[in-house]
Q: What sequence folds into this?
């Protein structure tokens, strides 16, 4: 939507809030969703966290930390705040990502509102409180006493912490589970846990994988880059830790994509999240073309909460997955040496 904003107020966030737009993380720089195209506004460090160099050059900016010096036309890609209303039989989802988490209230498969918050360090009490407190905040806003079902999904590390001390994710793996909410102190009647295929691939990765076409490769950016092939019979995965994301990590990711190309002949590559710049640069140099895609996890969670067929589909996808340790693959080692 094209907007011409007046010179006052100078704060772009205030100006957009006056127009009715919603800042999902409250302007804390966590969600990367307050997207606008405004080439006249100089980019900030926050923009470099969420956009590629090419997007920044095209004028993409995040609105929450910007000021405007005068009247200007901007293209706004944000959503308007929902009108306050009472919900009657909602469900909630807590999608716990490596860096940001999304807590949403859903009715009949429609996401009514999502709160985006920074994910704390994997710790049982902190994760449960993040999901529980924010769900209650949404209940209060929409006049709900309690939701019937709450979906909780996350990376394997996060789910292990969410389950609590001594939990073994393999107890909950492969097929989705619905359990009593009191088991995790959640403010709902029951908790639906989508499948957790293995120690590299949690329910969050599974929901993202469901969002790309069959025969494609998914790259998940973040603290650990994960690469997953979605094929007819298999969905192998590799996680490459990115503690510092320098030249050697960039070569490892490049060699992994080449390896997957040789093994599975994928059609397209989809990137969800942001790759560290040395990796972005290495892929660009090697002519690897990918499409960037918004995270599909919360939308898929909403679908799973409203349609049992969808849950069966997730179970089937999870059963095709196996963990692939690239460091044990000789061919990947060879490609790494060549890259
Ligand atoms: S509102 Fe979340 S990054 Fe701007």
A:
């Amino acid at each position: 939507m094209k907007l011409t904003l007046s010179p006052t107020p100078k704060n772009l966030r205030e100006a957009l809030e006056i127009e009715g737009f919603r800042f999902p993380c409250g302007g804390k720089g966590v969600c990367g969703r307050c997207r606008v195209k405004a080439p006249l506004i100089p980019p900030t460090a926050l923009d470099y966290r969420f956009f590629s160099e090419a997007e920044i050059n095209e004028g993409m900016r995040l609105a929450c930390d910007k000021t405007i010096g005068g009247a200007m036309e901007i293209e706004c890609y944000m959503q308007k705040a929902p009108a306050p209303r009472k919900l009657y039989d909602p469900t909630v989802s807590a999608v716990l990502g490596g860096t940001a988490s999304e807590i949403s209230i859903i009715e009949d498969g429609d996401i009514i509102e999502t709160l985006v918050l920074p994910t704390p360090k994997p710790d049982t009490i902190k994760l449960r409180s993040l999901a529980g407190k924010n769900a209650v905040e949404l209940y209060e806003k929409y006049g709900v006493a309690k939701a019937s079902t709450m979906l909780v999904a996350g990376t394997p590390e996060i789910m292990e912490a969410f389950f609590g001390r001594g939990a073994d994710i393999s107890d909950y793996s492969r097929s989705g589970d619905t359990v009593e909410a009191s088991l995790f102190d959640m403010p709902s009647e029951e908790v639906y846990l989508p499948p957790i295929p293995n120690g590299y691939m949690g329910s969050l990765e599974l929901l993202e994988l469901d969002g790309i076409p069959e025969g494609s490769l998914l790259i998940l950016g973040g603290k650990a880059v994960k690469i997953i092939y979605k094929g007819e019979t298999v969905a192998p995965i590799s996680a490459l830790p990115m503690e510092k994301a320098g030249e050697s990590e960039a070569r490892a990711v490049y060699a992994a994509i080449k390896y997957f190309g040789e093994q599975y002949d994928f059609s397209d590559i989809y990137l969800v999240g942001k790759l560290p710049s040395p990796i972005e640069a290495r892929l660009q140099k090697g002519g690897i073309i990918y499409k960037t895609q918004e995270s599909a996890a919360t939308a898929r969670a909403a679908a799973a909460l409203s349609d049992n067929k969808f849950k069966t589909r997730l179970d089937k996808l999870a059963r095709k997955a196996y963990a692939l340790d690239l460091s044990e693959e000789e061919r990947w080692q060879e490609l790494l040496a060549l890259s």
Summary: The domain at 91-193 is CATH 3.30.420.480 (Nucleotidyltransferase; domain 5).
